[in-house]
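F.,

This is the one I mentioned.
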């Protein structure tokens, strides 16, 4: 009986010693979670060739509509948003692996992407258009019959091209779709006659044509693809960050920031009230 009491006594002493350590570890875990929920810096993955959303100026600085908007949103959030160039075709993988916290680069909301990421409320309107050379006399999607087309790898244009083959894929030459790392290279091939059309975002196409010295040589053709919206991609687990980002985007719409940036970069107001997007 005495031996049993001694065992109980020793066990009680051990618990007294260990309890503060267990409590400290528990508090540390909670503190770590709190830090992760509100990092001082958020990394946004971008394609730094996607003008006018995110691209490099001559001095190397990342500029563009989304660059400006991300920085304005960062001020609302009280967190610095750093723009990091990534392989655009690997964007969802980068987000899932934690190397970036956001996808912020003219990122189109689609049902397919919603299976992988959580989207913020949408903030900008866009659509897929076909850009051709006027001298080719291509004035409609059907005129692309047996012609070659260029697409950016991993773009929403590529996704729509494959998801709705009756609109354009079944019209162009069989196996004629050429994939590019960025739209700049696609336009170079268009000018050289290696392809006869480029399918891409109307926002990019409009900016590229305005900036090009021979803008009168291009034609923009709209077809059967529906209007799209741009939003920010997040991990599905980042619920609180998504709520805070939605609030920031709503405030930036209400104070006119999104409309002002749209006029600055696109020469028109393509802003979309985030509060109406659920």
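My design for it:
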């Amino acid at each position: 009986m005495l031996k049993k009491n001694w065992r109980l006594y020793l066990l009680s002493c051990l618990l007294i010693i260990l309890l503060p350590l267990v409590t400290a570890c528990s508090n540390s875990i909670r503190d770590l979670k709190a830090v992760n929920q509100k990092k001082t810096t958020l990394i946004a993955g971008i394609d730094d060739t996607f003008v006018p959303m995110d691209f490099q100026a001559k001095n190397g600085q990342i500029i563009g509509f989304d660059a400006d908007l991300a920085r304005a949103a960062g001020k609302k959030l009280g967190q610095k948003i750093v723009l990091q160039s990534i392989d655009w075709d690997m964007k969802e993988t980068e987000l899932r692996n934690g190397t970036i916290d956001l996808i912020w680069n003219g990122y189109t909301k689609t049902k397919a992407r919603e299976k992988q990421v959580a989207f913020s409320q949408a903030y900008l309107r866009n659509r897929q258009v076909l850009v051709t050379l006027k001298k080719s006399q291509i004035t409609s999607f059907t005129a692309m019959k047996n012609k070659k087309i260029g697409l950016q790898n991993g773009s929403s244009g590529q996704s729509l091209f494959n998801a709705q083959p009756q609109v354009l894929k079944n019209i162009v030459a069989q196996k004629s779709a050429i994939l590019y790392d960025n739209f700049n290279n696609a336009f170079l091939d268009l000018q050289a006659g290696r392809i006869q059309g480029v399918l891409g975002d109307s926002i990019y196409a409009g900016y590229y044509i305005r900036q090009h010295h021979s803008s009168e040589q291009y034609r923009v053709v709209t077809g059967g693809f529906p209007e799209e919206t741009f939003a920010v991609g997040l991990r599905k687990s980042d619920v609180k960050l998504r709520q805070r980002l939605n609030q920031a985007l709503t405030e930036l719409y209400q104070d006119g920031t999104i409309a002002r940036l749209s006029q600055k970069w696109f020469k028109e107001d393509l802003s979309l009230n985030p509060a109406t997007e659920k």
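The chain is about 40% helix and 20% strand.

Talk soon.
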